[in-house]
Design a protein that fits this description.
Elements (H helix, E strand, L loop, with lengths): L11 H9 L3 H23 L2 H18 L9 H20 L8 H4 L19 H16 L3 H12 L4 H8 L3 H22 L2
Helix pairs in contact: 1-2, 2-3, 2-4, 2-7, 3-4, 6-9, 7-9, 8-9
């Protein structure tokens, strides 16, 4: 018996086209696709859940305002995270300081460590040890420069390539790669020190 091939989910471009053709639910589906990684990114950028909710709503409002002028040659996720990043930076400038705090209470989820940071030795699956690891990573993030944190968090919470991150931040690709490399080395060093 032959099974019928599963239809692949619609692309971002397909959903945008459906929305422009009058299907409001297509736009909702598109935003839901990015809801969790976008909110997690914002929480870690602004370090306050209430403030993150405001920035998230501002981001969605900005997207709704500008969606008709969105240039589909670009990647929707890159455009969306770019808006969120811009709003986070504006807010931090007004506060005149950067704070990057991660806690599972703030986001309701575990920190997703980049492939480059994973220790080949598996960690025990206990909440206490996971919380300790999260606290160590939070501390490590606070020791990074603001540029390193931006690159690291964008890479962690979006599906953006380094080239796209470089374009968004208006930095040379080699600079962004160097900042990510520096962030990974710093985080590894702190984790090694703490785990002794």
């Amino acid at each position: 018996m032959e099974s019928t091939p599963q239809a692949s989910p619609p692309s971002d471009a397909d959903l945008l086209q459906a929305y422009r053709n009058g299907d409001a639910r297509a736009f909702e589906r598109l935003l839901r696709r990015y809801e969790r990684p976008l909110f997690t990114f914002i929480v870690r950028m602004v370090a306050d859940r209430d403030e993150a909710e405001d920035v998230y709503q501002d981001t969605l409002s900005r997207v709704v305002e500008k969606i008709q002028s969105y240039d589909e040659r670009g990647k929707f996720g890159s455009w969306l995270f770019g808006i969120a990043h811009h709003l986070c930076v504006d807010r931090s400038r007004r506060k005149a300081r950067w704070k990057f705090i991660h806690s599972d209470e703030a986001t309701g989820e575990e920190f997703c460590v980049d492939e480059e940071l994973k220790d080949p030795t598996p960690l025990p699956d206990t909440l206490v040890e996971q919380k300790e690891l999260n606290e160590m990573i939070t501390e490590a993030l606070q020791h990074l420069s603001s540029q390193q944190r931006e690159v690291f968090l964008l890479r962690q919470h979006s599906d953006l390539s380094f080239r796209e991150i470089a374009g968004m931040l208006n930095r040379p690709l080699n600079t962004v790669l160097g900042q990510m490399h520096g962030a990974v080395i710093s985080i590894r060093a702190l984790l090694r020190e703490k785990m002794k």
